Amino acid sequence: MKGSVFFSLLALLALASSFASAYDPSPLQDFCVGVNDTKLGVFVNGKFCKDPKLVKADDFFFHIMEGNTSNPLGSQVTQVSVNEFPGLNTLGISLARIDYAPYGLNPPHIHPRATEVLTVLEGTLIVGFVASNQNDNRLFTKVLNKGDVFVFPFGMIHFQLNVGHDNAVALSSLSSQNPGVITIAKAVFGSTPPISRDVLTKAFQVDQNIIAYLQKQQWYDNN
Length: 223
Ligand code: MN
Description:
The protein has helices spanning 2-19, 184-189, 197-204, 208-216; strands at residues 75-80, 94-100, 105-110, 116-122, 125-130, 139-144, 149-152, 157-162, 168-174, 182-183. The chain is of the alpha+beta class.
Protein backbone atom coordinates (compact mmCIF):
# COMPACT_ATOMS: atom_id res chain seq x y z
CA MET A 1 0.00 0.00 0.00
CA LYS A 2 2.75 2.42 1.03
CA GLY A 3 4.58 1.52 -2.16
CA SER A 4 1.57 2.22 -4.38
CA VAL A 5 1.05 5.66 -2.72
CA PHE A 6 4.73 6.39 -3.29
CA PHE A 7 4.48 5.43 -6.95
CA SER A 8 1.29 7.43 -7.54
CA LEU A 9 3.00 10.44 -5.95
CA LEU A 10 6.00 9.87 -8.20
CA ALA A 11 3.73 9.66 -11.25
CA LEU A 12 1.97 12.90 -10.22
CA LEU A 13 5.32 14.62 -9.80
CA ALA A 14 6.46 13.45 -13.24
CA LEU A 15 3.21 14.79 -14.74
CA ALA A 16 3.58 18.12 -12.96
CA SER A 17 7.17 18.52 -14.10
CA SER A 18 6.16 17.83 -17.71
CA PHE A 19 3.94 20.97 -17.51
CA ALA A 20 6.71 23.13 -16.04
CA SER A 21 7.86 25.74 -18.53
CA ALA A 22 10.55 28.38 -18.73
CA TYR A 23 10.41 31.46 -20.96
CA ASP A 24 13.27 33.65 -22.10
CA PRO A 25 12.48 37.38 -21.98
CA SER A 26 12.43 39.11 -25.38
CA PRO A 27 15.67 40.97 -26.08
CA LEU A 28 15.48 44.76 -25.89
CA GLN A 29 18.52 45.41 -28.06
CA ASP A 30 20.42 43.76 -30.93
CA PHE A 31 22.84 42.06 -28.53
CA CYS A 32 23.93 42.18 -24.91
CA VAL A 33 27.28 40.41 -24.52
CA GLY A 34 27.73 39.09 -21.00
CA VAL A 35 30.52 40.44 -18.78
CA ASN A 36 31.68 39.12 -15.40
CA ASP A 37 33.12 42.43 -14.13
CA THR A 38 30.19 44.75 -13.27
CA LYS A 39 32.47 47.76 -13.89
CA LEU A 40 32.42 46.80 -17.60
CA GLY A 41 28.61 46.73 -17.74
CA VAL A 42 26.59 49.41 -19.54
CA PHE A 43 22.92 48.40 -19.83
CA VAL A 44 21.16 45.62 -17.97
CA ASN A 45 18.13 45.43 -20.25
CA GLY A 46 16.88 48.70 -21.68
CA LYS A 47 17.51 51.82 -19.60
CA PHE A 48 17.86 52.84 -15.97
CA CYS A 49 14.71 54.31 -14.38
CA LYS A 50 14.23 57.90 -13.23
CA ASP A 51 13.31 58.37 -9.55
CA PRO A 52 9.44 58.29 -9.59
CA LYS A 53 9.38 61.42 -7.37
CA LEU A 54 11.16 63.34 -10.13
CA VAL A 55 8.90 62.15 -12.97
CA LYS A 56 6.79 64.86 -14.64
CA ALA A 57 3.94 64.88 -17.18
CA ASP A 58 6.48 65.92 -19.82
CA ASP A 59 8.22 62.56 -19.40
CA PHE A 60 5.10 61.02 -21.00
CA PHE A 61 4.79 63.62 -23.75
CA PHE A 62 6.33 63.72 -27.21
CA HIS A 63 5.74 65.75 -30.39
CA ILE A 64 6.51 64.08 -33.72
CA MET A 65 7.80 66.37 -36.45
CA GLU A 66 6.97 65.93 -40.14
CA GLY A 67 9.74 63.98 -41.91
CA ASN A 68 11.81 65.39 -44.79
CA THR A 69 11.15 63.23 -47.86
CA SER A 70 13.73 64.93 -50.14
CA ASN A 71 15.93 61.83 -50.41
CA PRO A 72 16.49 58.95 -52.88
CA LEU A 73 13.62 56.89 -51.41
CA GLY A 74 11.13 59.76 -51.13
CA SER A 75 10.17 58.66 -47.63
CA GLN A 76 11.21 59.35 -44.07
CA VAL A 77 10.52 57.27 -40.96
CA THR A 78 10.55 59.33 -37.77
CA GLN A 79 11.00 56.74 -35.05
CA VAL A 80 9.75 57.34 -31.56
CA SER A 81 11.33 54.45 -29.67
CA VAL A 82 12.57 54.45 -26.08
CA ASN A 83 15.76 56.11 -27.39
CA GLU A 84 13.82 59.23 -28.43
CA PHE A 85 11.05 58.96 -25.84
CA PRO A 86 12.41 57.61 -22.50
CA GLY A 87 8.87 57.52 -21.04
CA LEU A 88 8.31 54.33 -23.08
CA ASN A 89 10.89 52.39 -21.03
CA THR A 90 9.61 48.93 -19.93
CA LEU A 91 6.19 49.53 -21.57
CA GLY A 92 6.70 47.28 -24.60
CA ILE A 93 5.40 49.78 -27.14
CA SER A 94 6.63 52.49 -29.51
CA LEU A 95 5.59 54.32 -32.65
CA ALA A 96 6.80 55.98 -35.81
CA ARG A 97 5.51 58.57 -38.24
CA ILE A 98 6.18 57.83 -41.90
CA ASP A 99 6.08 60.59 -44.53
CA TYR A 100 5.99 59.74 -48.24
CA ALA A 101 6.52 62.03 -51.22
CA PRO A 102 4.48 61.07 -54.33
CA TYR A 103 5.81 57.60 -55.32
CA GLY A 104 7.94 57.55 -52.18
CA LEU A 105 8.89 54.10 -50.92
CA ASN A 106 9.55 52.69 -47.46
CA PRO A 107 11.66 49.81 -48.81
CA PRO A 108 11.39 46.13 -47.75
CA HIS A 109 12.55 45.79 -44.15
CA ILE A 110 11.90 43.85 -40.96
CA HIS A 111 11.68 44.73 -37.28
CA PRO A 112 13.66 42.13 -35.31
CA ARG A 113 11.67 42.75 -32.13
CA ALA A 114 8.14 43.86 -33.09
CA THR A 115 4.81 43.46 -34.83
CA GLU A 116 3.69 46.68 -36.55
CA VAL A 117 0.20 48.12 -37.03
CA LEU A 118 0.13 50.79 -39.75
CA THR A 119 -2.64 53.42 -39.94
CA VAL A 120 -2.88 55.66 -43.01
CA LEU A 121 -3.48 59.28 -41.96
CA GLU A 122 -3.25 60.83 -45.46
CA GLY A 123 -2.94 59.49 -49.00
CA THR A 124 -2.94 56.12 -50.76
CA LEU A 125 -0.35 53.38 -50.18
CA ILE A 126 0.33 49.93 -51.60
CA VAL A 127 1.54 47.90 -48.63
CA GLY A 128 2.50 44.28 -48.20
CA PHE A 129 4.41 41.64 -46.30
CA VAL A 130 5.95 38.31 -47.30
CA ALA A 131 5.36 35.29 -45.09
CA SER A 132 8.20 32.96 -44.10
CA ASN A 133 9.45 29.98 -46.17
CA GLN A 134 7.17 27.77 -44.07
CA ASN A 135 4.22 29.62 -45.63
CA ASP A 136 5.74 29.48 -49.15
CA ASN A 137 6.77 33.16 -48.97
CA ARG A 138 3.20 34.22 -49.72
CA LEU A 139 2.79 37.94 -50.41
CA PHE A 140 -0.09 39.65 -48.61
CA THR A 141 -0.70 43.02 -50.21
CA LYS A 142 -3.39 45.70 -50.31
CA VAL A 143 -4.08 49.28 -51.38
CA LEU A 144 -4.78 51.44 -48.33
CA ASN A 145 -6.54 54.78 -48.09
CA LYS A 146 -6.97 57.32 -45.30
CA GLY A 147 -8.20 55.59 -42.15
CA ASP A 148 -7.21 52.09 -43.28
CA VAL A 149 -5.16 49.88 -40.95
CA PHE A 150 -2.83 46.98 -41.84
CA VAL A 151 -0.74 44.70 -39.64
CA PHE A 152 2.76 43.45 -40.43
CA PRO A 153 3.29 40.37 -38.21
CA PHE A 154 6.48 39.97 -36.16
CA GLY A 155 9.64 39.55 -38.24
CA MET A 156 7.96 39.55 -41.70
CA ILE A 157 9.53 41.50 -44.59
CA HIS A 158 7.21 44.44 -45.38
CA PHE A 159 7.05 47.69 -47.40
CA GLN A 160 4.86 50.67 -48.34
CA LEU A 161 4.74 52.61 -51.62
CA ASN A 162 2.87 55.89 -52.08
CA VAL A 163 0.82 55.40 -55.25
CA GLY A 164 -1.13 58.65 -54.90
CA HIS A 165 -0.29 61.94 -56.62
CA ASP A 166 0.10 63.74 -53.29
CA ASN A 167 2.13 63.29 -50.14
CA ALA A 168 1.08 60.49 -47.80
CA VAL A 169 1.42 60.08 -44.04
CA ALA A 170 1.14 56.93 -41.91
CA LEU A 171 1.43 56.17 -38.22
CA SER A 172 3.10 52.93 -37.10
CA SER A 173 2.50 51.34 -33.73
CA LEU A 174 5.12 48.77 -32.74
CA SER A 175 5.05 46.08 -30.05
CA SER A 176 8.49 46.86 -28.61
CA GLN A 177 10.07 49.88 -26.94
CA ASN A 178 13.04 49.29 -29.27
CA PRO A 179 11.73 47.46 -32.37
CA GLY A 180 14.89 47.87 -34.48
CA VAL A 181 14.99 47.97 -38.30
CA ILE A 182 16.82 45.84 -40.86
CA THR A 183 16.45 47.32 -44.35
CA ILE A 184 16.94 44.26 -46.55
CA ALA A 185 18.86 45.75 -49.52
CA LYS A 186 21.00 48.01 -47.31
CA ALA A 187 21.84 45.18 -44.91
CA VAL A 188 22.67 42.64 -47.63
CA PHE A 189 24.51 44.88 -50.15
CA GLY A 190 25.67 47.69 -47.87
CA SER A 191 26.98 45.86 -44.79
CA THR A 192 30.23 46.91 -43.10
CA PRO A 193 32.48 45.17 -44.01
CA PRO A 194 30.83 43.89 -47.21
CA ILE A 195 29.58 40.28 -47.42
CA SER A 196 31.90 38.19 -49.64
CA ARG A 197 30.97 38.56 -53.33
CA ASP A 198 31.08 34.74 -53.64
CA VAL A 199 28.33 34.43 -51.04
CA LEU A 200 26.04 36.95 -52.73
CA THR A 201 26.74 35.74 -56.29
CA LYS A 202 25.65 32.22 -55.36
CA ALA A 203 22.76 33.34 -53.13
CA PHE A 204 21.21 35.58 -55.79
CA GLN A 205 22.24 33.39 -58.75
CA VAL A 206 23.53 36.34 -60.78
CA ASP A 207 26.78 37.47 -62.39
CA GLN A 208 29.52 38.83 -60.08
CA ASN A 209 29.31 42.24 -61.86
CA ILE A 210 25.72 42.67 -60.72
CA ILE A 211 26.74 42.06 -57.10
CA ALA A 212 29.69 44.44 -57.53
CA TYR A 213 27.30 47.08 -58.91
CA LEU A 214 24.84 46.62 -56.04
CA GLN A 215 27.61 46.76 -53.43
CA LYS A 216 28.83 50.08 -54.88
CA GLN A 217 25.43 51.78 -54.41
CA GLN A 218 24.74 54.24 -51.62
CA TRP A 219 21.95 52.57 -49.65
CA TYR A 220 19.96 55.42 -48.11
CA ASP A 221 18.71 54.89 -44.58
CA ASN A 222 15.26 56.51 -44.29
CA ASN A 223 15.00 55.77 -40.56
MN1 MN B 1 8.02 48.66 -40.57
